[in-house]
Design brief:
Elements (H helix, E strand, L loop, with lengths): L2 H8 L18 H4 L17 H15 L3 H8 L1 E2 L5 E3 L11 E3 L17 H5 L4 H17 L4 E2 L24 H17 L3 E7 L18 E3 L2 H17 L4 E4 L3 E2 L2 E2 L4 H11 L5 E3 L15 H8 L5 H17 L27 H11 L2 E5 L12 E4 L13 H4 L33 H11 L15 E8 L13 H13 L3 E7 L14 E6 L7 H9 L35 E3 L7 H7 L17 E10 L26 E11 L5 E10 L12 E10 L4 E9 H4 L1 E3 L4 E3 L3 E8 L5 E9 L3
Parallel strand pairs: 3-4, 4-5, 5-7, 6-8, 6-16, 7-10, 12-13, 13-14, 14-15
Antiparallel strand pairs: 1-2, 2-3, 8-9, 11-15, 17-18, 18-21, 19-20, 19-24, 22-23, 24-25
Helix pairs in contact: 3-11, 4-11, 6-7, 6-12, 7-8, 12-16, 14-16
Bound molecules: 2-acetamido-2-deoxy-beta-D-glucopyranose (8 copies).
One 2-acetamido-2-deoxy-beta-D-glucopyranose (NAG) binds next to loops.
Length: about 750
Amino acid sequence: MNSLLSLASSALFLQGASALGYGFNGSDSQFYGQSPPVYPSSIGHGTSNARWVSAYQRATALADQMTIEQKVNMTRGYTGTCTGNSGAVPRFGVPPLCLSDAPDGIRGQEFVSAFPAGIHVAATWDRTLMYQYGKALGSEYRGKGINVALGPVAGPLGRVVRGGRNWEGLSNDPYLAGAGMGEITRGIQDAGVMATSKHFLLNEQEYRRRPSSIGEAFSSNVGDRALHELYVFPFMDALRADAAAVMCSYQRANNSYSCQNSKLLNGLLKTELGFEGFVRMLDWTLVMPDGGYWGQNLTDAVKNGSVSAERVTDMATRILASWYYMGHDNGFPAPSIYPGTTKHEPVDVQADHAALIREIGAASTVLVKNVNNTLPLQRPTFLCVYGYDATVPSMPWQDASRYGGGYAVNFGWQTFAGTLITGGGSGSNAPPYVVSPFQAIQERLRQDRGINPTYTPYVNADACLVFINAYASESFDRLSLTDESSDRLVGNVAANCSNTVVVIHSTGIRNVDAWIDNPNITAVLYAGLPGQESGNSLADVLWGDVSPSGKLPYTVAKEEADYGAVLSSSLSFDQFPQDDFTEGLFIDCRAFDRDEIEPRFEFGFGLTYTTFEYAKLNVQMDMGANTDPLPDPEVAVISGGHPALWETVATVTCALSNTGRVTASEVAQLYLGIPSSAEFDTPARQLRGFQRTPVRPGETRTVSFALTRRDLSVWDTTVAQWRLQAGTYKIHVGASSQDLRLEGNLEISSS
Ligand SMILES: *[C@@H]1O[C@H](CO)[C@@H](O)[C@H](O)[C@H]1NC(C)=O
Ligand SMILES: *[C@@H]1O[C@H](CO)[C@@H](O)[C@H](O)[C@H]1NC(C)=O
Ligand SMILES: *[C@@H]1O[C@H](CO)[C@@H](O)[C@H](O)[C@H]1NC(C)=O
Ligand SMILES: *[C@@H]1O[C@H](CO)[C@@H](O)[C@H](O)[C@H]1NC(C)=O
Ligand SMILES: *[C@@H]1O[C@H](CO)[C@@H](O)[C@H](O)[C@H]1NC(C)=O
Ligand SMILES: *[C@@H]1O[C@H](CO)[C@@H](O)[C@H](O)[C@H]1NC(C)=O
Ligand SMILES: *[C@@H]1O[C@H](CO)[C@@H](O)[C@H](O)[C@H]1NC(C)=O
Ligand SMILES: *[C@@H]1O[C@H](CO)[C@@H](O)[C@H](O)[C@H]1NC(C)=O
């Protein structure tokens, strides 16, 4: 992958800059004609909460003493110890900020953990695990002296089914993705490290995401309603958790590059969403290792009046405020980042995170087929294991000749090359070790004096386990959701073994219709991208120590064509390629519902080793809930948007009973039917609540879902506000987006 170097470089630069309004005034025809100009850029005021207030007071006081050169210095990148290093201001004791990839573990370093990827964390549907994930990640960054962690990801959201980076993010459902963005951001920052919400916004495909010899990058053209209800939605949760940094994206939006798109950065992010932190510019044609386009040029531009001094002061103040907000002015460790070629004292930041990684890996494993209770395995003594994905290849991540020494740059193995624990590119992590499925299975067998012969006559086996995967990486999109070799492998095993269990490690949707109905295939598991404890997590589920409770964070179709136009990235050789998001809100399950397409496995689906019963739905308006159609315009916006959007309007509860024989967690899900009209065409049902609850056999627990104003609202493009309509809202609660067990209504009348 030649692009590796540029990927690494791309992480080098930071900017408090955004939408400088520099040089582009709308007359540049095709480039910059369509995204509305929104100027000036909102000044960060630090009014969201007491902590920001005090951070801004200190930041403003310090910035006031600085020269333009010093302010600009903080907004630019330097080559240094870390993947990215900002300029320092030694005169005032401001050190360079150290930035590093990746969202699922520190990239390219030693004695760090390889966590599950975002899409796998989403499959837990467990807010507590999401938070703990963020906290553990954050503590590793802090331990290494890294100020800014470059994650979590909600862009791409996952609109394009074959998108190359979907796995770095959480789910193509904005509510589930938002829950993850909020919890992970909170976790990272509670550990004392700045979280970066990325990529803002609409980087939904890898193909032509950047300018090239063919022409400009793709332009994502999306109307304001889908922009808010799908793509901005999860970023709101991250900002609500006070995200200190946001990274803009490579491609264009309405023909204007995202990193200079004033509508996105000034209008949406800094004004509507009240963002207090700083925007990091990623576009590597604009910013270079030493200096960057905006280094000296920015100073010159202020001096000649092209850019206002206030804009640069705001850039510097936002960076300083984030620094104070996180307490990085006080006792933050110096970076311990070493080139692999230098002898040094190792700094081990792994703590006991392996246990959490193992727990998340098991909690997010999704069981989709389990005929005649094949799983859990009943103390098996004879298992056959097949497939390239069962084992770990020999250390490809330490290929020093390729990466100039040092540790993992990449750990996404291509399909066929070994077990997949994360994807490829800058979102990849650096595992200290990998417990392969083969290793963990052998260990279990050894304990029970079982056998796993290398030459396998299938006939006497308790079960045959076959491992396949589906790889994806930054820089390119997937070409298919299946591959023939893997399907043939599964078919061959199943043709000879009447109890075949298929395990899929995948970067996203992997279709299975080539073999799913084969009666010899008795169990199928989507095991995601589980990180370093892969085999242990899986064995915990196979042997029944953990009853599966993971649910699909996407829809698996019967045929690829069922996804319609959003199956593949848009292909174009035009100089100004355009991608119109004409499907609007209707991606994934929203589209399947509307078009009455039966999925193979629906969004939110996943089996367990027990049975659950749902009862006693109760829908209750909250006392004194404000149901005005629009949030009070007199109330100031805080980080995340208008504060009223987060107020609970109604609460839904139900009873959840475990009617089977083993303890298990169930993810109860709430789907909401927002009133549809000619003005607001709404999807039949949208996820607006979930709660993962552990329940013992015979036990009944109450599950509760709080519905906020945002959950119930639609984006009204005319008034540019979230509108709470009066009317009847359908409430469905169940075990998946199709397995809806309870139904009720919520009546909203205008107050
Ligand atoms: C925009 O910039 C061009 C030069 O790039 C200039 O000719 C034109 O007058 C400017 N238009 C406005 C409205 O400032
Ligand atoms: C793109 O254009 C559409 C249609 O005019 C508009 O609704 C949307 O807000 C625009 N988005 C951006 C980022 O300019
Ligand atoms: C800018 O940052 C560099 C790198 O940290 C530092 O060496 C230099 O002194 C800084 N310049 C100013 C004007 O503070
Ligand atoms: C400044 O801008 C010029 C073009 O105006 C560009 O060639 C140069 O690379 C930029 N960066 C620096 C550090 O001068
Ligand atoms: C101001 O300085 C910038 C950066 O050097 C340059 O690109 C721009 O053309 C200058 N503008 C004027 C009006 O001189
Ligand atoms: C499942 O169990 C039933 C009843 O024992 C049996 O008829 C059927 O063949 C079994 N199916 C498989 C795939 O083993
Ligand atoms: C299993 O079945 C397939 C298809 O019938 C056959 O080609 C293959 O050789 C058999 N044996 C093994 C070990 O895969
Ligand atoms: C199932 O496996 C048995 C061997 O155990 C084989 O004889 C049979 O043909 C297989 N069935 C299918 C549909 O592959």
